Amino acid sequence: MRHQVGPYRIYILLFLLILVTAEIIWSWKKERGVYEVKETLANLTVFAGFQFSKYLFAGYQLAMLGFFANITPLKLPHNGWVFLLTFITADFIYYWFHRISHSWKPLWAFHLIHHSAMHMNLTAAYRLNWFSAIVSPLFFIPAALLGMPSDFIVISYVLNLAYQFFMHTEAVGTLGVIEKVMDTPSSHRVHHGSNPIYIDKNFGGVLIIWDRLFNTYQPETEPVRYGLTTGFLSHNPFKLVFQGFIDWFKPVSSALSKDSSTPYSEASPPK
């Protein structure tokens, strides 16, 4: 089985490399400047660490969901309709997981790194905390208790994150009616904006309907300023990964000075 999976992983990485290369060429020809060498190298280093962390925490994630799937009396079958239900449920859960990650400082400690990118490009999609797998399964426990198969939950979450890779680009403009239902590059650019109008908006993973339902939707109406509200953080991947935790454990008086805490207005840090 391992020999079968290996080549597919290589094909996926090659596909991603082709897309990144195409975006670099587009940026160069259009003089958009969406790639900066040091930041891109930092993104790739963080990505490598994140890939390693997936192996490190995979057993924990499966055991966590498997435990709750085993104790619930509800058992949904493995079929297409249940997978669709699981996928939509996982997307709904992701919306709230993502939204809470912006408002509660312990979760922001994990998420800060993703918003520290100063440029929007495909490599920024994998600017993810190496330890995020510790907390993410906890949010999907309700789906397991509702009887959704744990493998369906994991696959749905993986597909959700894979879809979001394509959202991290300036090469795609607005997409008309699709903007009303799906998360799009335009919607996700807004999410990464430090402009006051864009703060705490567009938390959806695949579907943007949750943002529309819960009043967190904002269309792209002005040029986006990327990064934290406090500006540039670092190109050091270790600082990027651990800065959120450092900020979390700062004394209250020190935390109020907010060296790098949040993408929202500096008057309202996460609690």
Automatic annotation (TrEMBL):
GO BP: lipid biosynthetic process; membrane lipid metabolic process
One Pfam short name: FA_hydroxylase
Superkingdom field: Bacteria
GO MF annotations, alphabetized: glyceryl-ether monooxygenase activity; iron ion binding
Protein name per its UniProtKB record: Fatty acid hydroxylase superfamily protein
Membrane-spanning intervals of the chain: 6-28, 40-60, 80-97
InterPro entries in UniProt: Fatty_acid_hydroxylase (IPR006694), Sterol_desaturase/TMEM195 (IPR051689)
Domain Fatty acid hydroxylase residue range list: 83-216
CC per GO annotation: endomembrane system; membrane
Signal peptide: none
PANTHER family: ALKYLGLYCEROL MONOOXYGENASE (PTHR21624:SF1), STEROL DESATURASE-RELATED PROTEIN (PTHR21624)
UniProt organism field: Mucilaginibacter gossypiicola
